[in-house]
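Suppose a colleague, Dr. K., hands you the sequence of a protein chain of 655 amino acids and asks what its three-dimensional shape might be. Before reaching for any lab equipment, you can write down a predicted structure in token form. Begin with the sequence itself:
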Amino acid sequence: MKINRLLIFVFLLVQSFLFAQTKEVLFTIDNHPYYTDEFTRVYNKNLDLVKDDSQKDLDKYLELFLGYKLKVEKANKLGLQYGTTYQNELKSYRNQLSKNYLNDSKVTNELVREAYDRLQQEVRASHILILVDEGASPQDTLKAYNRIIEIKKRLDSGEDFIAIAQQTSEDPSVKENNGDLGYFSAFRMVYPFENAAYKTKVGQVSKPFRTRFGYHLVKVVDKRQNRGEVTVAHIMIVKPNVSDAAQNEKAKATIDDIYKKIQQGESFESLAQQFSEDKSSASKGGVLQRFGSGQLSSEEFENVAFSLVKKDDISAPFQSQFGWHIVKLIDKHPVRSLDDMKAELEDKIRKDERSLLITNSLAKKLRNKYTIAKDAKALAQVKKVVTDAFYSQTWEVPANTKDGNITILTINKTYKVSTLVFLNFVYSQQKSNIKTKPLTKLVDELFEKFTDEQLIGYYNENLENEFPEFRYVMDEYRDGLLLFDLMEKEIWNRAKSDTTGLMSYHRANLDKYQWKKRYNVDILSSTDKVTIEKAQNFLKKGKSIDYIKEKLNKDGKVNVMAKSGLYEEDYDVLSQYSNVKPGVTSIVNKDKYYFVVNVKDTKEAGPKEFIDCKGKVISDYQQYLENNWVDELKKEFQISVNNDVFAKVKQQLVK
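The predicted structure, expressed as tokens, is then:
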């Protein structure tokens, strides 16, 4: 069975590290040495993860470690390390891991604290926007600024905010919302906008401020406590896939019937288990994972869920874009503690405009950490080839730049950056629509930005040398990715495509793939014994399910419900019967419900056809292949274990 790459082997599970031990060769695979320090480190790292003392046996652990390295050797032998997907995923993982090192912890912690404090509140605000590009000319910028200043004066003199918003705001949505943005919290707006909203008092209008969209004025209408998260259960009838009035009416009728049964005192959880079409939650009585504002795809569902006040409150049926629902409140949860949210907030900050504050701080530290040498002559040559076409975003890097290979920047005396790299950087910055003039000043400004970028890039490339723990994680993840790709090629895909092997395995292990006795049935249920007795009589007379429901569900009450299908003998209420035969059963009671079953047909216990259990056979066959894999690899590779060195390792580890 496929597993997540990050869980491919227990060696990858915990990122805690010990100082490296003295290195000696523990074993070789085809003359490739593997050392004691790695074995010791991964053994100690995973020691607390295993609960079975037998798994701590060093001889067995050596076999496990050797088998793991054999698979990695096989992957390298097949050239999987050169695969494009592998290379891209390794690069992506390194980029993700490096984010923990490419920041300024002090600035990050300050931003985390600020964001957390803001998450305690939701702000409702309206705004007026005057559009102006980030790279607009000084003239256009001044024009937009003067307009927003005039608007602010009008507001200060007492004019109505909504009326002025309708007249002046260049936000396209103003026609529909009069500038009202509703309630929001941290990370929902661009950072400068968020700052203005949280720093402005309720009922007041902010000073003009600029974002990448232009100049804004924000009026704070209200601030309320963040409503946190909520846990609810629901019963759902799925919206029909086609626009069929009859089908839609049937779905609504079903949810209404269920709601009537709830009002009659029947169990929400039991009804969810029987009738909810949300398969992921029905078996759990309809309970969903807790969520907060904006975390679901349905605003209607969220609003209803948060509107419930007391535990066990139940909503009336309502419709979302997914279907019809009834919601029951399980619990409400306040905003989590800072410790619980810290990692999540750090991740959001890295993806937000706030990250520029961290990047700028890191670059400043790196300027002090590393030696930087700028070639003034090379920079002067660049200034000669950058033209006014930059401002119209039509400038091109000269095709035959004779000075292209001249070093323009040197970091730590060894890392050299050519003029051509800087020229390409200048070319890319045209998209930013920068209007700095004259050109010499523009190039100087871009060179400082370029230097910061190169410093951070140099630091990033050397993380393995600067931080041993970073190197350890990357080595282990590199091996884990290879092992995943190898297993996909040698085990998972092989098992899926080996039809002959699968069929043979199925025949050889037929005792594992057996049907229990099955029944084709109609199952009727009611909380009222008299009603279910009437249903039983109708069934004995050969009446249809529709006929029975029509006769027994009257006066707006749903007294009986039914479901039909082919079920094994231990399914739900069928397990209450000791001797099921074709025909109508006796009445049984379970979980405050009365049941009667119409058994239309029976199928005896027996072996499953391959097509009926193909998924399970593939999974079992994959496990079978994997269990015999290491033995095959031991025959393919030359292995030599240094037993004297291993004896010393065991002595060190048992102390």
